[in-house]
């Protein structure tokens, strides 16, 4: 209520004026802009989503575009929107106004934002056609044993888990002292798959994890699929420079008959990978404060990860041994049926089942 309304009412009371029987009808007043203009919120989200910045683990996000620029873009799409309306809608969508922070993401490639847009366009086209789109990555390696795990959980007072003072390698486990979770996140179905290995994070291990996801979940979810889109980081076992990654993907394409397209995130932007904040963050929250004593415990904690929005996760143990240093010869690499896209063929390419 405005101050002028309060002052008017005060004067009327002091003057002895009887209150009116007029009551404002329920629902009176102007309707919200998003009700008067269906699709306004979705259009704004589409404008800012490819250029969303901020820590993906947090609910707070921010965009490079100003409210005035966004208002002009909305107006060009036929909506009536002011900079102030855009500001209010961004707050409703979880964005906040933030000052620059000294947080270098790494080398800023000149085509960074353009690659984000290209990757987003590729994913949206596939999703709109009902085709499988997955985000893949290796989660942080975890020590296996009675070690402290960051975070807290409810326990009887004075009865915390007793863990080792030092994080020294458990000799009884031999070489298998670390768990390597490789995740596959189905973007369209909010469904996760994690293969937990204890050998090495190699390209062969990464592709085998995708193979197991396809044979367990993907084939059932997409029985008529002819194509698969994978979004992945620029480095690691699934990096765009790793020959073995492409070679093993070619083997998977040959086995499944799928045409496999890979779009890599630009260098230095791995934390924007969907799997990081749609799957891995929730797994970390689910097992916080609990020692990961063995592979079985890790699997059970991963599988028990769920969210209110419907995320479900399956996992299994990959006991295979994956040697490091695998070399793919020029002859074998050149035999891969690989077609590089016109836009950044090093980051975006398709492998056929030929």
Please explain how this structure is put together:
The protein folds into two domains: 33-99; 112-351, Nucleotidyltransferase, domain 5. Helices cover 34% and strands 15% of the residues. The protein has helices spanning 3-14, 33-36, 40-48, 67-76, 83-92, 112-128, 203-221, 243-256, 274-286, 295-303, 330-334, and strands at 52-53, 62-63, 133-138, 142-143, 178-186, 191-197, 227-232, 259-264, 312-318, 338-340, 348-351.
Summary?
The chain has helices spanning 3-14, 33-36, 40-48, 67-76, 83-92, 112-128, 203-221, 243-256, 274-286, 295-303, 330-334, and strands at 52-53, 62-63, 133-138, 142-143, 178-186, 191-197, 227-232, 259-264, 312-318, 338-340, 348-351.
Q: Keyphrases for this structure?
A:
alpha/beta, Nucleotidyltransferase, domain 5, nine-stranded mixed beta sheet, elongated
Please describe the topology of this protein.
Layout (H helix, E strand, L loop, with lengths): L2 H12 L18 H4 L3 H9 L3 E2 L8 E2 L3 H10 L6 H10 L19 H17 L4 E6 L3 E2 L34 E9 L4 E7 L5 H19 L5 E6 L10 H14 L2 E6 L9 H13 L8 H9 L8 E7 L11 H5 L3 E3 L7 E4 L3
Parallel strand pairs: 3-7, 6-9, 7-8
Antiparallel strand pairs: 1-2, 3-5, 4-5, 5-6, 8-11, 10-11
Helix pairs in contact: 4-5, 7-8
């Amino acid at each position: 209520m405005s101050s002028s309304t309060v002052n008017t009412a005060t004067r009327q009371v002091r003057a002895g004026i009887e209150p009116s029987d007029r009551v404002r009808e329920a629902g009176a007043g102007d309707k919200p802009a998003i009700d008067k203009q269906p699709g306004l919120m979705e259009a704004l989200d589409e404008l800012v989503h490819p250029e969303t910045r901020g820590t993906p683990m947090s609910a707070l996000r921010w965009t490079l575009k100003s409210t005035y620029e966004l208002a002009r873009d909305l107006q060009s799409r036929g909506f009536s929107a002011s900079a102030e309306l855009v500001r209010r809608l961004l707050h409703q969508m979880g964005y906040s106004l933030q000052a620059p922070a000294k947080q270098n993401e790494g080398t800023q490639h000149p085509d960074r934002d353009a690659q984000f847009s290209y990757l987003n366009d590729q994913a949206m086209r596939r999703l709109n056609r009902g085709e499988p789109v997955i985000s893949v990555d290796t989660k942080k390696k975890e020590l296996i044993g009675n070690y402290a795990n960051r975070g807290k959980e409810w326990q009887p007072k004075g009865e915390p888990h007793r863990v080792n003072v030092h994080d020294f390698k458990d000799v009884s486990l031999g070489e298998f002292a670390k768990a390597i979770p490789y995740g596959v996140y189905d973007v369209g179905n909010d469904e996760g798959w994690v293969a937990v290995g204890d050998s090495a994070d190699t390209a062969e291990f990464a592709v085998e994890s995708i193979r197991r996801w396809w044979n367990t979940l993907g084939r059932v979810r997409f029985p008529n699929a002819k194509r698969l889109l994978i979004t992945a980081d620029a480095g690691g076992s699934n990096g765009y420079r790793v020959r073995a990654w492409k070679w093993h993907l070619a083997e998977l394409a040959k086995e499944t008959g799928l045409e496999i397209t890979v779009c890599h995130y630009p260098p230095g932007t791995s934390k924007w990978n969907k799997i990081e904040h749609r799957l891995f963050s929730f797994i970390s929250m689910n097992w916080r404060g609990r020692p990961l004593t063995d592979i079985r415990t890790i699997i059970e904690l991963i599988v028990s990860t769920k969210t209110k929005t419907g995320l479900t996760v399956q996992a299994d143990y990959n006991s295979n041994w994956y040697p490091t240093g695998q070399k793919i010869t020029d002859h074998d690499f050149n035999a891969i049926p690989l077609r590089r896209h016109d836009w950044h063929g090093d980051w975006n390419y398709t492998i056929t089942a030929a």
